[in-house]
UniProtKB/TrEMBL annotation:
GO cellular component: plasma membrane
Gene3D superfamilies reported for this sequence: NADH-ubiquinone/plastoquinone oxidoreductase chain 6, subunit NuoJ
Name the record gives this protein: Multisubunit sodium/proton antiporter MrpB subunit
Similarity comment text for this entry: Belongs to the CPA3 antiporters (TC 2.A.63) subunit B family.
Transmembrane regions: 29-47, 54-74, 86-109, 144-161, 181-205, 211-231, 243-266, 278-298
Bilayer topology term: Multi-pass membrane protein
Originating species: Roseinatronobacter monicus
Classification via PANTHER family: NA(+)/H(+) ANTIPORTER SUBUNIT B, NA(+)_H(+) ANTIPORTER SUBUNIT B
InterPro entries linked: CPA3_antiporter_subunitB (IPR050622), MnhB (IPR007182), MrpA_C/MbhD (IPR025383), Nuo/plastoQ_OxRdtase_6_NuoJ (IPR042106)
Coiled-coil zones: none
Residue ranges constituting the Na+/H+ antiporter MnhB subunit-related protein domain according to the UniProt record: 182-296
Localization terms from the record: Cell membrane
Length: 308
């Protein structure tokens, strides 16, 4: 039964992936892409990589899907949603195929890993979750750069705003019908989502969870409350939101400097202080990730227009 399920899942992943690339219509391609991400999340769960499955479902399928739908809606409002001609698609397909082939070649050309087995060094990390140990201890450089890249992506979105719109609220205001489904959902979801998001962050040190997963859940809660009209969209000039954006990378950098002064080197964590340091970094990263994702979804400052 499990073999048949895995074969069916693999076939669905290949079929939906092909449909998202070759299907007609931007909206249909986006829907197939979201479905593709959800299927990949199920596949990762089948492989026992629950942290990756959560990240895939929340960030790849959820957040990226919302961003693609928002981009599609913006293109339609600008009357720029026409399909590009085949002369544009074909070179892009050739380049993408070349990159994919290069990555496959690089994978097989890599030498055999010489690093020690993770189970042997896991006790030195201070946490019980091997994914957290890798992301925030043994390969902390990668996670630090990811948090900075996420902030850079938000700055890129903000650069799309007009100069005279910077004092306006971010994004377009939403108006939910009083007593409607969205308004009711916006009041029921936040307490549940808040508890679940905080749990993912706290549990991430020793089991499935972490800052990216918890931050994505908290961002979703915040977005629902904004769409329901309970919480207003922020303004770029508000100091609290700006401080929240840089809190995670800032704490991460301070931890790295402390490691350079008192441990083995930059981003090095002493074994006795590793767990509290990792939990502190994850808590700060969660705030920054949640705020960054919210601001990415609601878009750049806009001083006009409404969404019904």
């Amino acid at each position: 039964m499990s073999v048949a399920l895995d074969i069916t899942l693999c076939a669905l992943i290949l079929g939906v992936g092909w449909a998202s690339v070759t299907g007609q219509g931007v909206f249909r391609a986006v829907i197939f892409f979201i479905t593709y991400g959800l299927l990949l999340a199920i596949a990762w769960a089948r492989l026992g990589a629950y942290d990756v499955a959560l990240a895939e479902a929340a960030i790849s399928a959820g957040l990226t899907g919302v961003l693609l739908l928002a981009a599609y809606g913006r293109l339609r409002r600008l009357n720029a949603g026409a399909e590009p001609p085949i002369a544009v698609n074909l070179p892009a397909a050739v380049v993408a195929t070349g990159i994919a082939a290069g990555l496959v070649w690089a994978w097989f050309a890599l030498p055999a890993p010489t690093a020690p087995d993770l189970s042997e060094v896991l006790p030195q990390s201070g946490v019980g979750n091997p994914v957290t140990a890798v992301l925030l201890n043994f390969r902390a450089w990668d996670t630090l750069l990811e948090s900075i890249i996420l902030l850079a992506a938000l700055i890129g979105v903000w650069m799309l705003a007009r100069d005279d719109a910077w004092e306006a609220p971010l994004g377009l205001p939403y108006h939910a019908r009083p007593g409607g489904v969205l308004a009711s959902f916006g009041r029921v979801l936040p307490p549940i989502g808040l508890i679940f998001g905080v749990y993912l962050v706290w549990a991430g040190a020793d089991t499935t969870g972490g800052a990216f997963q918890g931050g994505t859940v908290l961002a979703a809660v915040c977005l629902v409350t904004m769409m329901a009209g309970i919480l207003r969209a922020p303004r770029v000039a508000q100091p609290a939101w700006r401080a929240a954006l840089v809190l995670g990378p800032g704490v991460f950098l301070l931890s790295g400097l402390a490691g350079a002064l008192f441990a083995q080197g930059f981003l090095g964590l002493p074994p006795d202080l590793a767990k509290p340091a990792i939990v502190t970094i994850e808590a700060a990263l969660t705030v920054s990730i949640a705020v960054t994702l919210v601001l990415l979804v609601i878009g750049p400052p806009d001083d006009g227009g409404h969404v019904a």
